[in-house]
């Protein structure tokens, strides 16, 4: 007999997505649970609910994609990587200074 959630086709794909599994793993670690599987279904329902209410219709979604998503994704892609690169560079410089002082 199939589990309850497998009778709904779309929920099977959502529950098996890496985002939901990693999210439930993280929450299970935060709450100190032994198994992450108990959190899969409630987390999937929350994600579906927030996805439905965040964009009321396809017009708003396309408006978001055209006007907001490109600058947002470019900011995240370029500036975050540039920031991490600079942090790593500073960390290496500090390590080299510490090594020279201790030698």
Shape: flat
CA-CA gap between termini: 69 Å
Q: How would you classify the helix and strand content by structural class? A: mainly alpha
Mean pLDDT: 78
Using only C-alpha atoms, the radius of gyration works out to 22 Å
Element pattern in H and E: HHHH
Most strands sheet: none
Question: How many structurally independent domains?
Answer: 2
Number of strands: 0
Q: How much of the polypeptide forms β-strand, as a percent range?
A: under 5%
Distinct helical segment count: 4
**Helix amount, in percent?**
over 70%
Q: Segments where pLDDT lies below 50 for 5+ residues?
A: none
Give your account of this protein's structure.
It is a single chain. The chain is mainly α and 103 residues long. The chain has two domains: 1-54, no CATH class; 58-103. 79% of the residues lie in helices and 0% in strands. It contains four helices and no strands. The chain has helices at 9-15, 18-31, 40-54, 58-102. α2 (18-31) crosses α3. The longest helix is centred in the last third of the chain and has 45 residues, at 58-102. The protein is flat. The termini are far apart. The mean pLDDT is 78. The chain crosses the membrane at residues 12-31, 38-56, 68-87. Keywords: Membrane, Transmembrane, Transmembrane helix.
